[in-house]
Amino acid sequence: MQPATFALPSRRSFFGSRAFYGYLFTVPGLLVAGALILYPLLFGLYVSLNDWNWASGQSAQMTFVGLRNYIDLVHDELFWNALLNTFYFTGAALVVEMMLGTACALLLNSVAAGSAFFRTILIFPLMISDIVAAIMWKMLLDPSLGFVNYLLSLVGIGSINWLSDSHLVIPAIVLIDAWWQTGVITLIILAGLQSLPEEPREIARVDGANAWQIFVHVTLPAITPFLWTAAIFRAIDLLRVFAIVWGTTGGGPARASQVAQHYIYAQGIGGYLHIGYSTSLAVTFAAFICITVVILLGLSRKGPAE
């Protein structure tokens, strides 16, 4: 039997083939995507290498300064404080939302009657914009007139300055974000639970395993890819937090809740109009987000034996 041979298509046959026309038809879309994606990125990198202060009005000109903006941000304690607050908020919110989302998904998966009603309740906060959620919770957490402190007063707990105490402000923002976005994690994990076959859990029950053992040894390993997917997507979103902080505390008190996006905004169009420097901050922060995502992706690909 002769071994199979594979001949490369000739140049003439390729340029007249369906593949050629398929590639040709994608060129306009690629050009548009390149213009909409690459140009802003490259322009942002260029601006970050310039001193461009809009405070001087329309006559503001860019002055090339090289890496000076990046050198300055290394010594900018306020930026590193904002970055630390961002990772503190992201870590705390991710843990809380993953735990609540997993618990809600397990409950919804085990409830037959009324499941649609409870799903609607969980999804409802997702329909509210972040700034609306921030303003609503700012009123609810008001130390004098807020409904949360009123409920606490019924059980003998005094007024708490949720958004004015430097030790409580980020946990309070975590509470707001958990109320607003836990439904996303719930839906992802619930989809994973409903895609699992019932046979492994039935076999575990026959072998005498209780509900906790079934969850730890059967269900949890099976939904791990869904957990990682939810965690990575939420981590990216949490790192980019802005509107909730801007709408509740404005970064206060004493910058205790100022996150990276808010500081970048304040340095740029939100206050000082140091466009070149704020762009260098944005580029650096984007690099931190990429590094975080790469680390999470690496952890998610590790097998149980590793």
Keywords:
13 helices; mainly alpha; two-stranded antiparallel sheet; single chain; MetI-like fold; flat
Topology:
Layout: H1 11-15, H2 18-48, E1 50-51, E2 63-64, H3 68-74, H4 77-110, H5 115-123, H6 130-140, H7 147-154, H8 169-194, H9 199-206, H10 211-239, H11 243-248, H12 260-267, H13 275-301
Antiparallel strand pairs: 1-2
Helix pairs in contact: 2-13, 4-8, 4-10, 4-12, 8-10, 9-10, 10-13, 12-13
Please outline what is shown here.
The chain is an all-alpha fold and 306 residues long. 68% of the residues lie in helices and 1% in strands.
Description:
By secondary structure, this protein is mainly alpha-helical. It contains 13 helices and two strands; from the N terminus they run H-H-E-E-H-H-H-H-H-H-H-H-H-H-H. It has one domain: Orthogonal Bundle (MetI-like fold), CATH 1.10.3720. 68% of the residues lie in helices and 1% in strands. The protein has a two-stranded antiparallel ribbon with strand order 1-2. Helix 4 packs parallel to helix 8 and helix 9 packs antiparallel against helix 10. The chain is flat and about 75 Å long.
